Amino acid sequence: EFNLLALYMDYAHVELVSGLSYHWDSLLIAQYSLKLSEIIAILHEKADIVVDIANNLQHLVSQLKAEEYKFNVFSNILTNIRKELTKIDNYQLYNTQHYMYLISQHVEEILLDRLFSSVSEFLILVKIPAVDREPGDSKSNLLNRELLSSGLLKVS
Q1: Which terminal residue of the chain has fewer beta carbons within 10 Å of its beta carbon, N or C?
Q2: DSSP structure string for 54-75
Q3: In this structure, how many other beta carbons lie within 10 angstroms of the beta carbon of residue 3?
Q4: What is the pTM assigned to this prediction?
Q5: Sheet strands (E) in the chain
Q6: In what helix (H) or strand (E) does residue 24 lie, and over which residues does it extend?
Q7: Superkingdom of this entry's organism (predicted)?
Q8: What is the 3-state secondary structure of 121-138?
Q9: How big is the CA angle at 136 (ends 150 and 69), to the nearest 5 degrees?
């Protein structure tokens, strides 16, 4: 969120500095002030949008962490996250692919954590011994090994 805002502020600053190098006559001053005021207005508009989207995403991610797993609840939360991410494209916010990747990675981690804990609890309930964790094991690798060793997952 702040990197994106910094990008817009940097753009406004570059325009401001470029204006200082003009030979000032009334026509240039008028053109420059119009352009700069437009850039500042866009900066404020985009900043408000970025902050709103970031707050909404933060709230949805918190909900995703806190909610008890029910398919329709999770589906609604993930749909709302997707809608917020779509706003980024709709409002033509720039330099967002990286941040969208980070958000989807964060959501994936949360879902994987929840799946991992659910499978672990299930294995405890059915008294299947857990697989030992190896150094460098990711949760998805560990989860796959647990499912394979329990017979719940078959490789074809």
Answers
A1: C
A2: HHHHHHHHHHHHHSPP-HHHHH
A3: 10
A4: 0.49
A5: none
A6: none
A7: Eukaryota
A8: HHHHHCCCCCCCCCCCCC
A9: 50
User: Which residue in this structure is represented by tokens 């406004």?
Assistant: 12
- Angle among Cα 40, 9, 55 to the nearest 5 degrees reads 95
Distance in angstroms (rounded) separating the CA atoms of residues 148 and 140: 12
Check if the beta carbon of residue 102 is closer than 8 Å to that of residue 4: no
What tokens appear for 1 in the block? 């969120």
Domain regions of the chain by residue span: 5-129
Give per-residue burial for 88-109: e unless 16+ CB within 10 Å, then b. Answer: beeeebeebeebeeebeeebee
Q: What is the pLDDT of residue 53?
A: 87
Say how far apart CA 61 and CA 81 lie, in whole Å. Answer: 8
Structure tokens at 153: 């997952």
CB-CB neighbours of 37 under 10 Å: 10
